[in-house]
């Protein structure tokens, strides 16, 4: 039987928070998994542009799964211990706690890498300031996180040792990682709205994208609340449980948020499918003379493709719809989507896309 210094009332509060931490952890894992599966479907099936950023997000989801499992094991052991049944020795508990925290750090780093790769596909080499900022927002939290990961596994910081000279260093490092991660999440959310502001879209499209980006900004809010958990009153045990709970909320919310950034093509696909069902699929229109044309600069091609605003050549077969706006797109040569230098003609705002209406060499 394990002796604890907490009062019976505080033990009941701790048991309640342990149960809530486990429930929240599995809930966030379920939500983020659904968002991740939808992202994979959009990028691999609808856009056919599954890239390194998507692979990094899959890796983040895997780390988050392991983190959830270890957190659940730690909480289960804690519940048994506070109920007077010690089923796991302290060394095993310390090992599980180290792995749980380590998986959380790797999850956050993978999310940052995925988000930075996603941003690099939008901000080309000519966006120097944005790319420098993205590098900073990725490297700084990752470096601090790796230092914390070393301290977790190579020192007595996460143990029940009564005296540990590394514990204060670890606490400062962990707090610094939390601050850096919070600032990075807020900055990435701001960059997302900057992307939306620069995109050539209709008002309705901007509103729908704004809703997705607003939901995505909740990840930054969860990071801030996780930092606030450091300074909440209560015993060290209760404070650590609260901190772990907000860590799981932050990781799950960030994964979900980043995946939501890529789901607008799915909403467009569902809307277009519903429109075709409503019209019986018989709305065949003649190709009228072009009413307007716009030359987009090269930096917006990856942006349009990332958000599903253009279709690949031949993706609609020989079907031709009435164009609302004809856009001549000069593809970026540094884009992973580019072929040889050429100008492709797409139609936007018709909602359905017409495919490639014709090409000519540059």
From TrEMBL:
<feature type="transmembrane region" description="Helical">
    <location>
        <begin position="54"/>
        <end position="78"/>
    </location>
</feature>
<feature type="transmembrane region" description="Helical">
    <location>
        <begin position="132"/>
        <end position="163"/>
    </location>
</feature>
<protein>
    <recommendedName>
        <fullName>Rhodopsin domain-containing protein</fullName>
    </recommendedName>
</protein>
<feature type="transmembrane region" description="Helical">
    <location>
        <begin position="98"/>
        <end position="120"/>
    </location>
</feature>
<dbReference type="InterPro" id="IPR049326">
    <property type="entry name" value="Rhodopsin_dom_fungi"/>
</dbReference>
<keyword id="KW-0472">Membrane</keyword>
<dbReference type="GO" id="GO:0016020">
    <property type="term" value="C:membrane"/>
</dbReference>
<dbReference type="Pfam" id="PF20684">
    <property type="entry name" value="Fung_rhodopsin"/>
</dbReference>
<feature type="transmembrane region" description="Helical">
    <location>
        <begin position="209"/>
        <end position="231"/>
    </location>
</feature>
<feature type="transmembrane region" description="Helical">
    <location>
        <begin position="243"/>
        <end position="263"/>
    </location>
</feature>
<feature type="domain" description="Rhodopsin">
    <location>
        <begin position="38"/>
        <end position="268"/>
    </location>
</feature>
<dbReference type="InterPro" id="IPR052337">
    <property type="entry name" value="SAT4-like"/>
</dbReference>
<feature type="transmembrane region" description="Helical">
    <location>
        <begin position="23"/>
        <end position="42"/>
    </location>
</feature>
<keyword id="KW-0812">Transmembrane</keyword>
<comment type="similarity">
    <text>Belongs to the SAT4 family.</text>
</comment>
<keyword id="KW-1133">Transmembrane helix</keyword>
<feature type="transmembrane region" description="Helical">
    <location>
        <begin position="175"/>
        <end position="197"/>
    </location>
</feature>
């Amino acid at each position: 039987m394990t002796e604890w210094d907490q009062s019976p009332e505080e033990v009941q509060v701790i048991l309640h928070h342990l149960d809530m931490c486990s429930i929240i952890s599995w809930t966030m894992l379920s939500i983020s998994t659904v968002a991740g599966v939808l992202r994979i479907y959009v990028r691999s099936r609808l856009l056919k542009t599954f890239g390194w950023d998507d692979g990094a997000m899959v890796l983040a989801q895997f780390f988050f799964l392991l983190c959830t499992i270890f957190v659940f094991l730690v909480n289960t052991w804690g519940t048994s211990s506070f109920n007077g049944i010690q089923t796991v020795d302290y060394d095993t508990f310390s090992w599980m706690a180290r792995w749980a925290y380590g998986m959380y750090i790797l999850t956050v780093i993978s999310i940052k890498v995925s988000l930075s790769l996603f941003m690099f596909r939008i901000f080309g080499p000519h966006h120097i300031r944005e790319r420098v900022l993205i590098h900073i927002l990725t490297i700084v939290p990752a470096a601090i996180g790796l230092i914390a990961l070393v301290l977790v596994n190579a020192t007595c910081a996460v143990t029940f040792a009564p005296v540990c000279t590394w514990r204060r260093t670890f606490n400062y490092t962990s707090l610094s990682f939390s601050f850096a991660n919070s600032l990075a999440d807020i900055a990435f959310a701001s960059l997302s709205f900057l992307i939306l502001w620069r995109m050539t879209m209709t008002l309705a499209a901007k509103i729908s994208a704004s809703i997705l980006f607003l939901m995505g900004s909740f990840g930054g809010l969860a990071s801030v609340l996780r930092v606030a958990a450091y300074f909440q009153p209560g015993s060290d045990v209760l404070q650590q449980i609260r901190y772990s709970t907000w860590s799981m909320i932050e990781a799950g919310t960030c994964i979900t948020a980043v995946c939501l950034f890529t789901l607008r093509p799915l909403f467009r696909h569902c809307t277009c499918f519903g429109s075709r069902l409503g019209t019986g699929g018989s709305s065949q229109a003649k190709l009228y003379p072009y009413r307007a044309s716009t030359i987009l600069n090269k930096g917006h091609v990856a942006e349009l493709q990332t958000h599903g605003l253009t279709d690949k050549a031949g993706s609609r077969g020989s079907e031709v719809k009435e164009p609302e706006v004809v856009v001549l797109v000069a593809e970026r040569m540094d884009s992973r989507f580019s072929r040889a230098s050429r100008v492709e003609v797409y139609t936007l705002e018709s909602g359905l896309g017409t495919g490639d209406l014709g090409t000519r060499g540059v």
